[in-house]
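User: Can you help me understand a structure? I only have the sequence.
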Amino acid sequence: MINQKLCLSLGNFGISDKEQIKLFKKTGFEAFTGCWHVGQEEGILNAAKIGKEEGITFEAVHAPWDFTDDMWNENEKELAEKGVNNLIKYLELTAKADVDLMVSHVYVGFDEVGEPTEFGLQNYGRVIDRAKELGIRIAFENTEGENCLDGLLTHFKNEKHIGFCWDSGHEMCYNFSKDLLALYGDRLFITHLNDNLGVKDFNGKIFWHDDLHLLPFDGIGDWEYNAKRIAKTGFLGTLTFELNKTSKPNRHENDKYMKMPVEEYVAECYVRACRFAKMVEKYK
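Assistant: Let's start by predicting it. Here is the structure, written out as tokens:
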């Protein structure tokens, strides 16, 4: 028996959201999450309806990341306003779907490092205020723009509805394997567990093609180390896995998954999830 619930994110699996949700439940997962981009908002409410029909928990809504970098830039006020409005809109959809957690990026872009600004903190503050009004928690995720993440979690450290989404793969390929759980593990709301091969560029230039979202144990991740760190945080919530069946452009690491029938692939996701969950249990 696994002592933590297991969750899988909806993805490009070659079947509809409804078929995925039903397959996840049949395979053994207790929950699902999903990411719907601007223009796909109706997918959130459809997923909520299907989840209730199938008796599987809708764990979290992942908001779109459009204009999140502009939200820090006072010279891009019009685009920043679009970013704020997007996040507030998805908060309201999260509430309408009867889900209490939204995941959000804090920055998008690889040409600049990204730095926190007072303008950005004010913009995110508006989003955070709306989340509080709605009774929604926000988990800010580690991606590129690590300094902006730190700025937000530091500035809003006393807001109990604001926490951290730890993406194990992003830590490796965007954050150079810096131990982010040591910094923010006491505020962990949700995990995005996945594997990759780290930063491909010899000079250390980060790029989204490195974000492979392989199954755990298929990349270079140290999963014993990850299990120990999660256990140390005391996190007892659902362990969420965010995995890709398809390869990134000009990459072929995920091609082997595409050769698998979707039922076999999801079953393998569940095997890896159980294997990792037992490792976490061992270190508690």
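Now, to help you interpret it: DSSP finds ten helices and eight strands in the chain. The longest strand covers residues 57-62. Let me know which part you'd like to focus on.
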